[in-house]
């Protein structure tokens, strides 16, 4: 069963601008990603919005593989800040999982 945590999205947004509410799940981001990796922003962002923290963390490697090139974002019909959202997830993981301070 999918475990969810209603506070998760609040934690991700604690000191970032994570915003994926406008996503219409069109799939362009996945189709255009030059890495061809298993990073599916729409799925990842949906996991955040429903509080599926474990599912997000299972994608940690993919989250850090992203080039932040914005090929996806530049072609997103809903203007979702995809690269910035990926940065937000990295910040969350650095802070709450790896326990890295900002120094
Ligand atoms: S391209 Fe934008 S609207 Fe389409 S699935 Fe990706 S994030 Fe969502
Ligand atoms: S920003 Fe990341 S997810 Fe988007 S196209 Fe570039 S590598 Fe792929």
Alpha-beta classification: mainly alpha
How many H/I helices?
7
Distance between the termini: 38 Å
Shape: globular
Number of domains: 1
**Mind describing the biggest β-sheet?**
none
Q: What portion of residues is helical?
A: 40-55%
Strand content: under 5%
Bound molecules: iron/sulfur cluster
Q: Please write the string of helix (H) and strand (E) elements.
A: HHHHHHH
Spans with pLDDT under 50 lasting ≥5 residues?
none
If you average the pLDDT, what whole number results?
Answer: 92
The number of distinct β-strands equals: 0
Rg, please? Answer: 13 Å
Question: What is the gist of this entry?
Answer:
This protein is mainly alpha-helical. It contains 7 helices and no strands. It has one domain (8-13, 27-97).
Word description of this protein:
With 103 residues, this protein is mainly α. It has helices at residues 8-12, 28-32, 41-50, 53-58, 60-65, 71-74, 82-97. The protein is globular, with a radius of gyration of 13 Å. The model has no long low-confidence stretch (mean pLDDT 92). Bound molecules: iron/sulfur cluster (SF4) (2 copies).
């Amino acid at each position: 069963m999918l475990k969810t945590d209603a506070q998760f999205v609040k934690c991700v947004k604690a000191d970032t601008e994570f915003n994926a509410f406008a996503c219409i799940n069109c799939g362009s981001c996945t189709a255009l990603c030059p890495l061809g990796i298993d990073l599916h922003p729409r799925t990842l962002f949906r996991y955040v919005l429903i509080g599926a923290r474990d599912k997000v963390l299972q994608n940690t490697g993919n989250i850090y593989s992203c080039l932040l090139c914005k090929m996806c974002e530049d072609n997103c019909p809903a203007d979702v800040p995809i690269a910035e959202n990926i940065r937000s997830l990295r910040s969350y993981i650095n802070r709450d999982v790896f326990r890295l301070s900002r120094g």
